[in-house]
Write the structure tokens for this entry.
Amino acid sequence: MTAAELSGAELAATVRAEATARAAELTAAGRPPTLAVVTATADRSSAWYVRSIVRAAERCGLACAVHDLGPDAEPAAIAAELARLSADRAVHGVMLQTPLPAGTSLEELALSIAVEKDVDGANPLSLGRLASGLPAFAPATAEAVVALLDHHKVELSGRHAVVVGRSTVVGKPAAHLLLDRDATVTVCHSRTRELAAVTGTADVLVAAVGRPGLITAGHVRPGAVVIDVGTNPTPEGGLVGDVAPDAAERAGALTPVPGGVGPVTTALLLRHTVLAAERAGVARG
């Protein structure tokens, strides 16, 4: 058995087209949607992702500015920049790119991002609202997981979903979003005993730990749907996921890396920015 490919290309194109049309309307009204990305890292995979955001934003008619503070930036300087951008009425979305300098807390810094501009769901207040069923922007990667499953018509209600990874960026919000769709959700992490025994019961398996090849064929129930969130750089300059190639021999369907979750994540981030700009215009009357 060879797994069917759950490509994100078609869904990403649809979301981008919608964002482009709505951005054009806002720009014509004198309110061009604007995204600010704050970075403080020299990480190669992070730089690749930020470049992809900038390119995608430009193609969709959004303004996107990268504020690079350097890998040695102090937490106070990062927080101050996030607060400044949150107060700037010309900026509609603010995103803090990871990784961050050693000893720096994403959760603490993200508190400086205004919730209404937190288009990547990094502020703990956004996660709290999401967990409570209140309006909030979900982290784009976590939302992309569920959006891809919906796009490929994967039934979630009543099914067992296992999320490997408990980060506030992907694992925890993805679990909440799956719960909202009536899936029965198990979250695994580095302390989970006999990981393969747990993942092997999943109808839907989400790998989001950032460890190349962690999930092998032995972790996958035959016929399961596997969503690979991993984007791990290779020495040759490519990207590989958290799921090993042999998993395709047991999975019923599998997202590719690259070309699966990644493009949908970027497209949703742009959609969130456009929505934030629309809401800002309504709030101003």
Notes: The chain has two domains: 30-114, 140-262. The chain has a mean pLDDT of 95. The longest strand covers residues 34-39. The radius of gyration is 19 Å.
